[in-house]
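Blinded run. Sample ID left blank on purpose so nobody reads anything into the name before looking at the predicted structure. Input follows.
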Amino acid sequence: MTKTGNNVTGKLEVLHGRYAKRLLPPAQKLCRAAPELDPDDLVQEAFVRFLDHFEEPITKQNDEYVMNWLINVMNRHFYDQLRKRSSRQKAVDDPTLTRWTQAQDVPPSTYERIGQERFDWAINQLPKQQRITYLLRCQNLTNPEIASKLGVPVATVNKRLFDARVSLRKLLQPYVDEGIQ
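Blinded prediction complete.
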């Protein structure tokens, strides 16, 4: 192992020795709501993120700060995992959310059942204002940015996006149900 690898391993062992026993109970408590998540993985992820963000050694003076930081990071990672799981389920349930609004490592089965040509066809069926608003959202613009660009209130953008998703769901649902492209 390289000198850097030994250094990281040593820091990880120090973190584990000092904080693992104190972090594991809150991690176990969190994981009761999501049994598929492993408390040890939450603790490990908190340690890895700590090593990525801090160079300074842990002292008795900053021990409480470190512990609070680790718990905070662990909680955030847990909720990120829940949101990711929820997003994946929504993508499976709603074909309009998969291709354009969900960034996922593994495409869900809905994505595979609706080809690009079919999705582009459905987008072209939208009324012009909905289509433009939806395509701007697909470019990762926020709703306020879209509103500014189009010169309309944010509420109008929200309504157009909602209507576009409802329309796309109606247009694409038969192809999802049949499993054809």
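Unblinding after everyone has recorded impressions. The chain has two domains: 3-87, 94-178.
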